[in-house]
Design a protein that fits this description.
Strand content: under 5%
Helix content: over 70%
């Protein structure tokens, strides 16, 4: 007697769970990709802003250097050298240094009879004093610049605003006279 045994396999696979799993993965990937794309967009935007700021800073530098060269002629290299060291001596950028110099150097040049070398020296002393005053006394840089502008015109009345002891008979007065 031969007994035949048969096994029957049901090969129908229920893929509902598998398909749902794939959908969940796809949704998760969509969320991740959206976050990645959003992050990349933010990075690109920041890089663009940095690029724009770099171009603006360079343009400002060129403008400031042109102003210094016009005002100080043969002594402009000295002023530019001082500007390049301003981060150490006055705690400011070269651009800020040169911009500040141009706010009052015309008057100082006139007071010193057009002596660009002497003016370059005095401007550096003034900038360092301005920075010291702003840092130690908390005086706004705008007030200090305005005062020094008047000082350069030999109008000493505004120096009382700085409380530095400037006056007609002070040691510093003699330095700038």
């Amino acid at each position: 007697m031969i007994v035949e045994e048969r096994l029957t396999y049901d090969t129908n696979v229920d893929t509902k769970g598998f398909e749902k799993g794939l959908e969940d993965i796809e949704k998760s990937l969509d969320k991740v990709m959206k976050k990645v794309i959003s992050g990349i967009t933010k990075v690109v935007k920041k890089i663009s802003e940095i690029g724009k700021e770099a171009v603006k800073s360079y343009a400002d530098l060129e403008q400031n250097m042109g102003n210094i060269e016009t005002l100080f002629k043969s002594s402009s290299d000295k002023v530019i050298q001082n500007a390049n060291n301003a981060y150490k001596t006055a705690g400011m950028s070269a651009n800020d240094y040169m911009k500040t110099v141009t706010t009052f150097s015309t008057e100082l040049l006139q007071s010193l009879g057009g002596d660009t070398e002497k003016t370059a020296e005095m401007v550096n002393v003034a900038i360092i004093d301005m920075a010291d005053n702003a840092n130690k006394m908390g005086t706004s840089m705008e007030t200090i610049q305005s005062t020094y502008k008047e000082f350069a015109k030999q109008n000493y009345s505004m120096l009382d605003n700085l409380k530095l002891g400037y006056g007609r008979n002070s040691r510093r007065d003699a330095t700038f006279a």
